[in-house]
Write a structure and sequence with these properties.
By secondary structure, the chain is an alpha+beta fold. It is built from 15 helices and 21 strands. A hairpin with a 5-residue loop joins strand 10 and strand 11.
């Protein structure tokens, strides 16, 4: 299986960078295995040569979780739906499958995931590895919908995991940060395709924070965006409906797609980066341009939207009962500072789950995400925000900017030691290690 001679490996050392451009790495070689067997051989070969191995999806993480100077595995050739079990309500998919391709293929089969995040450019393995999530009263993270997975371990074995088979690995590997092995296939719970009706409505900051628990309780999926330098928010409530599909009209779709997400938003952010003093005024105008709208469609067309404007992001998971206080502290910090923030702050929720290093592990959770336009200095804002989030026992998203280390994680994750002990067992020589994992998991 000599992948170099088979043309599956690139010999020249070329730099890799993530989507946001804030992480770069220069691997010794890049490989694109065409089968699980080839991947197993690549892992064994790297271990024999004393090289580290990391798999990278589409680079949508803002951390260096996938960075390596060893062997960089691109799993995109391992893609597509392997099988559909309608009786069990599951679908098994190869790890390099991009979420948008999975969503469309499932819709073609009359099926859907129960919940998903707001972008679908990631590979399924990259999304679960870092804990990608949406918002939900009863369901949120993609990893919580996993019923089984396959994992290539440091010695090249293929391990099958579920609640019944290797359950201790299954408990951890659903969100493994690439530390336990390379995921090759995932079995998701799916259900018959359904309709969601979305209700978007502008709402004042004071009202939405005062009514936050009420909104979460009354809606299957609730989230809102606060526009810094204003008292304005935009709320979104997604609930199941009988249909039929009634997608957004062209005007409201343009406002959402261009004003808040892409073309016009890009121009506004470029102006703000060049002339920061314009940002508060722009934020007031942009937040007032929103109006209430209601539309209905199949899930992935409601949950997800395109994101062409590049940014850097930090997101923390807080105990849900503390999120409103933390958000008020964040607003007060921005108001008294000289910071100029052109991106809305996003707030979402998740129920407690049983995944070892899930940000929602063992507790009802709410998320606060802060963003800065690519190329804009973000350290002062993120440092001040992180100070607030950590004071509330926050857990940072594994794929988004943060400064926490293993000592901190041992405090905020009751099962942290369970994960690191499993890692010691599965990868004692740190074949899948890198600098990021050394910081967040220890050595």
């Amino acid at each position: 299986m000599g992948t170099a001679t088979a043309g599956k490996s690139s010999g020249a050392r070329t730099a890799w960078h993530n989507w946001a451009g804030n992480v770069t790495a220069t691997p010794t070689r890049v490989v694109t295995p065409a089968s699980v067997g080839e991947l197993q051989e690549e892992v064994r070969r790297a271990a024999e040569q004393g090289l580290r191995v990391k798999a990278v999806g589409t680079g949508h993480s803002f951390t260096a979780a996938a960075a390596t100077d060893g062997v960089l595995v691109r799993p995109q050739a391992l893609a597509g739906i392997r099988s559909v079990d309608r009786a069990a309500g599951t679908v098994t998919v190869a790890a390099g499958t991009v979420l948008k391709d999975l969503n469309r293929a499932l819709a073609g089969e009359g099926l859907s995931l129960t919940n998903m995040g707001d972008i679908m450019e990631q590979t399924v393995s990259g999304a679960i590895g870092t804990g990608t999530h949406g918002t939900g009263r009863d369901s949120a993270s993609i990893a919580a919908q996993i019923r089984g997975l396959e994992l290539v371990t440091a010695d090249g074995r293929l391990l099958t995991c579920s609640e019944k088979e290797n359950p201790e690995v299954f408990a951890a590997a659903r969100i493994g940060i690439g530390a336990l092995g390379i995921v090759t296939a995932i079995t998701f719970a799916v259900e018959p395709l359904f309709f969601l009706t979305a209700r978007e409505e502008p709402m004042g900051f004071d009202r939405v924070t005062a009514e936050f628990d009420e909104h979460v309780a009354e809606n299957e999926h609730f989230e809102f965006y606060w526009f810094p330098h204003t008292g304005n928010c935009n709320t979104k409530r997604n609930n199941r409906s009988q249909g039929p599909a009634a997608p957004p009209g062209p005007v409201s779709a343009w406002i959402e797609d261009e004003l808040l997400s892409n073309g016009l938003f890009q121009a506004v952010n470029s102006l703000g980066r060049a002339v920061p003093a314009t940002i508060p005024g722009i934020a007031r105008v942009a937040s007032r341009a929103l109006s209430a709208r209601t539309y209905t469609d199949i899930p992935y067309r409601v949950f997800t939207s395109p994101r062409r404007v590049r940014f850097v992001e930090m997101e923390y998971a807080l105990p849900r009962e503390q999120v409103v206080e933390a958000l008020r502290e964040l607003r007060a910090m921005v108001d008294r500072s000289a910071l100029r923030i052109s991106f809305p702050v996003e707030v979402r929720t998740a129920p407690a789950d049983d995944i070892t290093l899930s940000t929602a592990s063992g507790r009802e959770t709410a998320y606060i995400a802060v963003h800065m336009y690519k190329g804009t200095p973000y350290q002062a804002y993120f440092t001040a925000a992180e100070r607030i989030f950590t004071a509330h026992g926050g857990r940072p998203h594994w794929g988004k900017v943060h400064t926490r280390d293993a000592e901190y994680f041992a405090e905020v994750y009751p099962r942290f030691g369970e994960f690191t002990a499993l890692r010691d067992d599965l990868d004692p020589d740190r074949v899948f290690g890198n600098d990021y994992l050394r910081r967040v998991l220890g050595d």
